[in-house]
Description:
Layout: E1 54-56, E2 70-80, E3 87-97, E4 103-107, E5 116-123, E6 126-134, E7 140-149, E8 152-153, E9 157-165, E10 180-197, E11 201-217, E12 228-237, E13 241-250, E14 257-268, E15 273-274, E16 280-281, E17 293-298, E18 302-308, E19 316-323, E20 328-335, E21 342-347, E22 350-357, E23 360-366, E24 378-381, E25 394-398, E26 401-406, E27 417-426, E28 436-442, E29 446-455, E30 458-467, E31 470-479, E32 487-492, E33 503-507, E34 510-516, E35 526-531, E36 537-538, E37 562-565, E38 570-578, E39 588-598, E40 607-615, E41 622-625, E42 629-636, E43 639-646
Antiparallel strand pairs: 1-8, 2-3, 2-14, 3-4, 4-5, 5-6, 6-7, 9-10, 10-11, 11-12, 12-13, 13-14, 14-15, 16-43, 17-18, 18-19, 19-20, 21-22, 22-23, 23-24, 25-26, 26-27, 27-28, 29-30, 30-31, 31-32, 33-34, 34-35, 35-36, 37-38, 38-39, 39-40, 41-42, 42-43
Amino acid sequence: xxxxxxxxxxxxxxxxxxxxxxxxxxxxxxxxxxxxxxxxxxxxxxxxxxxxxxxxxxxxxxxxxxxxxxxxxxxxxxxxxxxxxxxxxxxxxxxxxxxxxxxxxxxxxxxxxxxxxxxxxxxxxxxxxxxxxxxxxxxxxxxxxxxxxxxxxxxxxxxxxxxxxxxxxxxxxxxxxxxxxxxxxxxxxxxxxxxxxxxxxxxxxxxxxxxxxxxxxxxxxxxxxxxxxxxxxxxxxxxxxxxxxxxxxxxxxxxxxxxxxxxxxxxxxxxxxxxxxxxxxxxxxxxxxxxxxxxxxxxxxxxxxxxxxxxxxxxxxxxxxxxxxxxxxxxxxxxxxxxxxxxxxxxxxxxxxxxxxxxxxxxxxxxxxxxxxxxxxxxxxxxxxxxxxxxxxxxxxxxxxxxxxxxxxxxxxxxxxxxxxxxxxxxxxxxxxxxxxxxxxxxxxxxxxxxxxxxxxxxxxxxxxxxxxxxxxxxxxxxxxxxxxxxxxxxxxxxxxxxxxxxxxxxxxxxxxxxxxxxxxxxxxxxxxxxxxxxxxxxxxxxxxxxxxxxxxxxxxxxxxxxxxxxxxxxxxxxxxxxxxxxxxxxxxxxxxxxxxxxxxxxxxxxxxxxxxxxxxxxxxxxxxxxxxxxxxxxxxxxxxxxxxxxxx
Length: 649
């Protein structure tokens, strides 16, 4: 369980430490039952201190055993006392189910000492490790170590082994006779500390310290050598396991110590985790790489991604079911749908694709996996449509309702006005109400950048109007099932204001609008407002909203990119030029994903923001919010890449 690498080899009999390594427990394989060593004490274990407060009731919660789980650690090693340069490394720990119970835990480079494995199990509220140990006499003994026990109490002390060996197998003093060896290992609960995992998440963790101590009794004089010792500190966080570990052991040269430190850099707990999973290419079951991510329908634990079926847009679309880990589970191609004129949404317990054709706007129905439900599409609206910022229509969908916004192309030879309209439909394509007019402008002006989102029982559309050279950010909120008259609002009347580029977002708690600042004086370049039930923007002051509502999310820094995703939370992607972690030697472009929860007041003062992941992964074109994960879907030259980001436990 500790101190694998060290200069204890200059004390040959203490080489048993080379077997005592692991990932919070002992090294070695999945051996048989424990063999109790001879009960002769080394005299090196101090009396246990008086026990103090209970830190955690259940020790097993601090050491979850997860078949298929993976913990990745960023490690560093340095020599203290010789001025030598340090070394960095990565240690990856995995769990696999053990036929004998518990898990087999394997580490690729524990304490920078190479690969090791051990069996770990929970027994009666205790965390135990089975460790095969060679005590120097050629006989391997399997010892069972207690790592933690319930309740986890300050000062609790438990012994791994405590031995006096008359025949160590080594002649340390060179008199031709073997010397005796005292060797012992024990663990003590130190207390509770706050640990920063992944460089940005603080969590409460129980700290234990394990000592390995040894000394020889020389046959030539009967005197004892100085006691050599090494320590292993482990920080355990509830539900996650080991989030930090550190060793301090003798080096190969006297007066030199070797110190290692490992910090959690990523955790894949199969059904939950921290950070992000490695980006994966989106590959269909046939082996073809998906290309051109056009849209996505999201559900609680999976999404249906719409891509172009071929390299020619008019030939069709492909619908792929993607699980929460970003893995493509199925792909079905459909011809006869122009991919460049199609939108996909999740509604009515299934997937709907709305696409323009020569006969107008049509609805195609699919199930939650992307399989066709009906053979024939449903006609929704007749042509012709005018372009809405390069698109012919915009869709928002929630529950069983689909809202379609579009600008009908005027029938008169010389158009004098343009109207932005919205109409609700059922998931089956039946109209719920007549169209409503959201905006009307005269010829020579413009309505552009129309976007729509939906929240429970509400939909919202925003757009930009150019009137007499000034840009206005307008939005409309539609309550209920779609039959109510939309409420119309103006967010900003400032010419060329940054709110012109505002993005609508929604979460289970409501609607919000976010935008980037164009002012270098802002403390952060992300600003925004929440939208009240009556449709009005919740402001923190009485001023007109343009750049006076900064959000207190320091992790956004000066973002180079901004992507917004709606779902259980408002999910935010940004990209910055930063160091991956404080100790990193160089800065690089880092992708960041965080979540924001609007409150009941102004977004600038009443919200919760959490950073979920920071690292080097592709810039997404789509951000998809699921219940337990956020999918960052990127269009790259080789095809679509998907990065799954864990929501924090």
